[in-house]
UniProtKB/TrEMBL annotation:
Pfam families: SnoaL_4. It comes from Mycolicibacterium pulveris. Coiled coil: none annotated. This is SnoaL-like domain-containing protein. CDD domains: NTF2_like. Transmembrane segments: none annotated. Residues 14-137 form the SnoaL-like domain. InterPro entries: NTF2-like_dom_sf, SnoaL-like.
Length: 163
């Protein structure tokens, strides 16, 4: 095996490992938020990372933790719910990445479960202190809104959303 071939294999392995780490972080969000583990959810974000969900702005890891601890969220998980994020598509560029996925929020009702919301999710991530952290997550309802479609299209292309 030549040095060039070995270097190429190492580069490809690193990309796969990065994509897998990003996918795992995104897939962890649902179980952690449904468990009400505010600190673990917040650790998915960079210290100054943002989360914009339907115009509700969180500007830091502390804001994300506060959202999980909020009466509204605690009531939601206390009644029964499932935040499910579908498979993520990640595009890595060095220590920066973009990922996209769709999500559903399922809530328990007296007669069973119902999808309460379906969303488009666009993530910007950065490798900080050796691990991938969310620097910005934007979520929009998949209700025909062109902004949601923009998040999906931009994320699949590995680009930031159009403003």
């Amino acid at each position: 095996m030549t040095d060039d071939r070995l270097a190429e294999l190492e580069r490809r392995l690193r990309r796969i490992e990065d994509e897998r780490a990003i996918e795992r972080a995104i897939a962890s969000y649902g179980p952690l938020v449904d468990a009400g583990d505010a600190d673990a959810v917040a650790e998915l974000w960079a210290a100054d990372g943002g989360y914009d969900v339907e115009g509700w702005q969180m500007h830091s890891r502390a804001d994300v933790a506060a959202m999980v601890r909020s009466d509204a969220h605690q009531g939601l998980i206390g009644r029964g719910c499932c935040h499910f994020l579908g498979p993520a598509v990640a595009t890595v560029d060095g220590d920066d990445a973009v990922a996209v996925c769709q999500s559903i929020l399922v809530t328990r009702r007296d007669d069973g479960f119902a999808v309460w919301r379906a969303g488009a999710n666009h993530f910007r991530l950065r490798r900080i202190d050796g691990r991938w952290q969310v620097v910005q997550r934007s979520t929009r309802a998949l209700d025909g809104n062109p902004e949601a479609r923009n998040l999906l299209a931009a994320g699949i292309a590995g680009l930031p959303p159009r403003t």
